[in-house]
Every structure is written in C-alpha cells, then in structure tokens.
Design goal:
Layout (H helix, E strand, L loop, with lengths): L2 H15 L5 H10 L6 H13 L4 H30 L30 H17 L2 H20 L5 H29 L17 H25 L2
C-alpha cells in the first residue's frame, strides 16, 4: 500500500469522526479541547505529588519530569516534525476542507502532523500511570487523553493518522521520562514497597488519588454544562 492510499484512507476516516448535527457535541468538543478546562486536573496532580512526597527534591524531580514530558512531546511535534512534514490541517487542506465541519470558525494556522495535543496528554498520562500505579487513575488519565484526541478530529484539526502517531510518541516519551525519573529517584531515596489497602504500590495514598479522579470528573461535568452555552 503506497503513501497516497494511506492518506486517502486517513481522510476518509476523519469524516467518520468529524463534526455532527449536534450543537451540544459541538460545544462539548470546543470546551474539552481548551487547555484551561483541565486546570483543575493539573492542580490535583500537583496536590497528589506534594502530598505524597517528603522532600522538595522529590517534588521538584516529578515536576521537572512532567515539564520534560511536555517539552519532548510538544517540542518534537511543533518544532521538528510539523515544519518538516508540512501537512495542512484538515480544515485548511484544499482537497478536503470543504467537506470538513468547523466549530466556531476554528481552523488552526499551523500544520497537522502529528498532533501535539495527543502527544502531550498521552505523555503526561503515561508518566503518571507509571508513577502512581493506580488502575483506576490510569483508566481515567488514559480516558482524558483519548477524549482530547477525539476533540481534535471532531473539530477538524487533525487526521486520525496525526492522532495515532501523537499517541505513540506520547507513550514513548512518558515511558522514557519515567525511566529517567527512576534512575534519579533511587539516588534520592531507597526503593520502598508499600503493601497496604490505603496506598498504591509506589506509596501514593488512595484518598489523594481519588481527589485527582474527582477533579477530573468535575472538569468533564464543567465541559458538559459549558458546552451547552458556548456555541452561538
């Protein structure tokens, strides 16, 4: 199968995800894709880290690794791959743009391949899944990333191929940064195993993990309520 055939399949798949006749879904996708919508989640993750680490060095290490995830995921996409590949966004692609449904006239001015949203969210989700080792939190963090991926296709800002590559790169970045974290962490504190119904295996209190999950669910609820009114 040649490249042109793959691109044609990618365009066809996009139209399965892009837009709808629902004003509610338009508003929901519009709100969910905004970074500020997820500020409560970021604050809750910071709370989780501060509450469950004993020294500023440990806290700083995790914060630094999180920033590194974003730097690698976003930086490679925005400053290396996108300018090199120079693939127009679906909303600006002369071949498909008239078939793509646009919400609130959002088209995006830069390139499409690959999705920084997908890479960023999945790198953070992967890193914290490995860090905390809570199955419930892992489920919600991966769901959060996938919801962000869906919004990018729904809004006509990325092709499924852009999303898939972004997810793969995000998982890779999250895993690599976690390996770096473990190497540095063992210098700051010996390895401990937590065997308790109140903690994860890496020592994070389940009550604090639940705070993150609640804040994430509240962010989803806010998006659903805000989505009703945001589209004019």
């Amino acid at each position: 199968m040649d490249l042109e055939r793959l691109i044609d399949i990618d365009r066809s798949l996009l139209l399965s995800f892009n837009g709808s006749d629902s004003m509610f879904l338009d508003g929901l996708a519009y709100v969910l894709t905004a970074g500020l919508t997820w500020l409560p989640l970021y604050l809750a993750l910071f709370y989780l880290v501060v509450k469950n680490n004993e020294t500023m060095a440990q806290i700083g290490l995790i914060v630094g690794c999180t920033i590194l995830c974003i730097f690698l995921a976003d930086g490679v996409s925005e400053y290396i791959v996108k300018p090199w590949v120079a693939r127009p966004r679906p909303s600006n692609d002369p071949i498909i743009k008239y078939s793509v449904q646009i919400v609130n006239n959002i088209r995006g001015m830069d390139y499409s391949f690959f999705s920084a949203h997908a890479a960023n969210t999945m790198s953070i989700a992967t890193f914290f899944c490995l860090l905390v080792r809570s199955k419930l939190l892992s489920f919600f963090l991966v769901l959060w990333s996938l919801v962000n991926c869906w919004t990018r296709m729904y809004l006509g800002l990325h092709y499924p191929g852009d999303i898939l590559v972004g997810i793969v790169w995000g998982v890779s970045v999250g895993c690599l940064v976690y390996l770096l974290y473990r190497k540095v962490y063992t210098m700051l504190r010996p390895k401990l195993n937590y065997v308790s119904t109140h903690y994860t295996s890496t020592g994070y209190a389940l009550s604090d993990v639940h705070v993150v999950i609640v804040m994430l669910m509240l962010a989803f609820c806010y998006a659903a309520i805000r989505g009703v009114t945001v589209i004019q």
